[in-house]
Amino acid sequence: MKWTVFAIALIMLLSAFAVGQQNQYSTSTAGGAPTPTTPTSPESLGLQTPSATASAQSPSTQERSQGLIKAEFNEAYSAAPQGLTATSNSPTYKRVIVPPGGFAPNSLYVSYAPQTVAGCNLYANLPLWMNTARAGSIWFYEWYPNGMLDTQYAGYVYYPGWYKRWFFADVPGWHILQYYCNGWSNYAYIYVYGSGRYWVDPNPNPQPYPYPYLYPQGQGQVTYTYPSTGHTYYSFKSSTTLG
Questions:
Q1: DSSP three-state, residue 198
Q2: How many CB atoms are located within 10 Å of the residue 198 CB?
Q3: β-sheet with 125-132: strand ranges across
Q4: Cβ-contact 79, 10 below 8 angstroms
Q5: What is the domain partition of the chain in residue ranges?
Q6: SS3 75
Q7: CATH code for the domain defined by 36-234
């Protein structure tokens, strides 16, 4: 009997340890990016894995060359599928989750507004819709399933309003997204279905960067590392460099 109780206690301890390890999200940034708050894990929120969005959406050649695309609010809302099912229309998919104890003046949606939780297959593209409350530099954050953080400078916007960006599903598991523009946005959660944990370059033949927005003065070159392989990308270069 004692051994049974001991075994159960050991299993519970190991489970708790595993969850704790899974929820260790990095907040380390580079290039002068604001330091984010550790996000709340989808497990802690009780989020169930959403169905994969059956979508053939992909960025156009012009959109691929831009880190940020000007948009209108009606584009974000009109992207919602017609005849939503009860599941896809669930309040869980539209749950607004802000930094713990914080305030989020900016909004971030996945696929369409006001959805904040979505699923997709590996190597798929999903549009991200951003509603900024102020002008300023936009820093974009993506936490990978293993907890590592990818930080990117997305550009400078002169006016508040709607902008579009693309998500590329390069690693299976939960991805947590957020951005900063003179204030934080809510979190968005995307579950990527697939097998294996290999990073894939979404643009194997990159074109020269068109510099659509100003680079923040006083900031050095921004680098960011994809967690699965350790490949380092250098931002704002005429070609993509792997370290």
A1: coil
A2: 12
A3: 69-70, 161-168, 125-132, 107-110
A4: no
A5: 36-234
A6: helix
A7: 2.60.40.1930
CA distances from 128 to 67, 198, 230, 237 (A): 11, 23, 25, 24
Instruction: For residue 64, give Cα distances in angstroms to 39, 105, 166, 172.
Output: 28, 27, 8, 22
Q: In the block, which residue shows the tokens 């053939």?
A: 56
pLDDT tens string 148-193: 999 999 999 999 999 999 999 999 999 999 999 999 999 999 999 9
Looking at residue 115, its amino acid is Q
* Residue with more model confidence, 53 or 130: 130
Q: What is the DSSP string of 151-197?
A: EEEEEEESS-EEEEEEEE--SSEEEEEEEESSSBBPBEEEEEE-S--
Beta bridge partners of 188: 177
Q: How far apart are CA 126 and CA 133, in angstroms?
A: 23
What is the residue-wise DSSP string for 30-74?
-TTPPPPPPPPPHHHHTPPPPPBP-------HHHHT-S-EE--HH
The rounded distance, in Å, linking the Cα atoms of 144 and 158 is 30
